[in-house]
Design brief:
By secondary structure, the chain is α/β, with parallel strands linked by helices. The protein contains 23 helices and 15 strands. The protein has a six-stranded parallel beta sheet, sandwiched between helices. Keywords: Oxidoreductase.
Length: 536
């Protein structure tokens, strides 16, 4: 069997393999969607397919929605060519339960895959055609936090953003330039209302998206590519809305073991691929069962009944509290505390690390001890119950295959929200953050990780991070076995409010982090000894 519309006709074979099929006709759904698109998604990787794809599949299966999702890829076009088109836009969802069982289902609600690349005239025009349709109600995004960034650390535009600004909408190549160009096409076609819904894991994501789009619009107006009416259109949230969201679902890279098991079950072509843009993807997507999506209910052109698929539809304040609860207290800080330490201690799988007594102690300290007291209560679910589920069910799940390396990606971009906000909350309450222990230990572990040698002294590959060269340069000369080599070198990082959203010395914990880091640099085994010392 292959994951194609043709092979889905052999229903009994899929049933024997333990894989559920759509109860609807994916081909007919695709035709209806192409004629009158209602939901577009940009950034069509793993989290989109297993989460939003599942939402749409459920809504279509239960009769709440009669159209699927139009998939638009603004960055990695290999995903369209190597995954979507060979599989007729179908995806195989594999939910990994903690007891080792799996829930496998073919998803058919992703109905068209288009590459938003200006040089490909046919594809570019197709995306504009979609955005011109009055039927379009929402455009959702999973393009990672980096996808919204326009500015470098010094405040200047990235080169690709400069190019999009100077060359205008018809030559846009960056994600935010493409979005602004599509909104301009919609405005010129009559300006029907629309909601643009970031579902990326960043604070106040709707505001981040709105600011980026408005910036592109203003720059194009100054250069004559757009008029004042376009700025009015994208500025009016009753015409172009940017709802805030909170999203949560652990979705590791596609598992080689699952690919092998699917082949054993008779399904061909399941091998994961690494694209030219370093996307790890496969015809299937694997992830945990629990998932949370909280969405500000502001859709000026209507919306699908997302609440019928378990989405919390609420107000902006509740979304903000949910996001801060998760990102600053009850989940993401624990990931960022344990990811680098897991690499240092030789753990590949995060679930294995969660069985380490010191690592479990650090997780509980960062979560229950330091994060939870500052966590806002969103009211729609309990922060303590959420954290209980994280630490007792979700993180220990040995079948997810989540890696410590993945949890260490882009640390410089995320420690500000994941640790910095809690640090600031303690400073506001107490005058300084001296009461904290777990978060300083986590930051020390990250800096020790940046040295590039594990706790046994072996060279260690570091996870991707756009600031990695600059951070490594600041720590140049720091040597395992020579704690004195640290000197003053950590100060350039720990005092950087752009990284942590606060100067850690002014917060009263900079010197303590330096002390912890020196202890971890004492030699092979020093990381373990330091953890035992502080977490006893």
């Amino acid at each position: 069997m292959k994951l194609t519309l043709h092979d889905l006709k052999n229903q009994s074979a899929w049933e024997r393999a333990g894989i559920a099929l759509p109860s609807y006709d994916p081909a007919a759904l695709a035709e209806r969607t192409k004629a009158a698109p209602a939901w577009v998604h940009m950034g069509i990787g793993n989290i989109f397919r297993i989460f939003m794809g599942s939402i749409a599949d459920q809504l279509v299966s239960e009769g709440w929605m009669d159209r699927g999702i139009t998939c638009v890829e603004p960055f990695d076009f290999d995903v369209v060519d190597k995954i979507y088109r060979p599989c007729d836009n179908l995806a195989l969802r594999v939910i990994l339960r903690g007891d080792g069982t799996r829930d496998c289902r073919v998803l058919g609600a992703m109905t068209e895959a288009v590459k938003a690349r200006a040089p490909e005239a046919e594809q570019w025009e197709r995306v504009k055609e979609i955005f011109r349709q009055e039927s379009l109600q929402m455009v959702s995004f999973t393009i990672t936090e980096k996808g919204y960034a326009l500015h470098q650390g010094d405040g200047s535009y990235f080169d690709f953003v400069k190019a999009d600004i100077e060359n205008g909408p018809e030559h846009a190549a960056g994600a935010m330039g493409i979005v602004a160009a599509m909104l301009l096409a919609r405005y010129e076609a009559g300006g029907a209302p629309l909601a643009l819904v970031s579902m990326d894991n960043c604070s106040k994501n709707g505001e981040v998206l709105r600011n980026a789009v408005l910036t592109m619009g203003r720059e194009w107006k100054e250069r004559g590519y757009a008029d004042e009416g376009f700025l009015a259109y994208i500025s009016d949230e009753n015409r172009t809305a940017f709802p805030w969201t909170m999203i949560d679902k652990i979705t590791p890279r596609p598992s080689e073991k699952i690919a092998a098991d699917l082949r054993e079950a008779g399904i061909e072509g399941m091998e994961p691929v690494i694209t030219s843009k370093k996307t790890y993807i496969a015809p299937f997507a694997n992830g945990e069962g629990p998932q949370y999506l909280v969405v500000e209910d502001h859709f000026p052109n209507g919306r699908p009944p997302l609440e019928r698929a378990g989405v919390y539809m609420t107000d902006r304040e509740t979304v903000n509290k949910s996001e801060r609860m998760k990102v600053t207290a009850c989940l993401n800080p624990i990931h960022s505390a344990l990811g680098p330490y897991g690499c240092l201690l030789g753990y590949e799988l995060f679930s294995d690390e969660m069985r380490d007594p010191q690592m479990l102690s650090l997780a509980r300290l960062v979560g229950y001890g330091e994060g939870l007291p500052m966590a806002p209560d969103p009211g729609i679910f309990s922060p303590r119950a959420f954290l209980d589920e994280v630490l007792t069910e979700r993180f220990p799940n040995p079948y997810l295959g989540d890696t410590t390396q993945r949890l260490s990606v882009d640390m410089s971009q995320i420690v500000g929200i994941r640790f910095g906000e809690t640090i600031k909350a303690y400073v506001k309450r107490d005058g300084d953050a001296g009461a904290l222990l777990g978060i300083p230990l986590a930051i020390a572990g990250w800096l020790r990780y940046l040295v590039g040698a594990d706790d046994a002294g072996r060279p260690m590959e570091l996870a991707p991070d756009p600031a990695l060269p600059a951070l490594r340069e600041k720590l140049s000369g720091v040597t395992l076995g020579k704690p004195e080599s640290l000197g003053e070198k950590a100060k350039g990082i720990l005092s950087d409010a752009h990284i942590f959203r606060i100067n850690l010395y002014e917060a009263g914990i900079g010197e303590r982090i330096e002390e912890m880091l020196r202890e971890e640099l004492a030699g092979p085994g020093a990381v373990r000894r330091t953890l035992e010392n502080y977490l006893a």
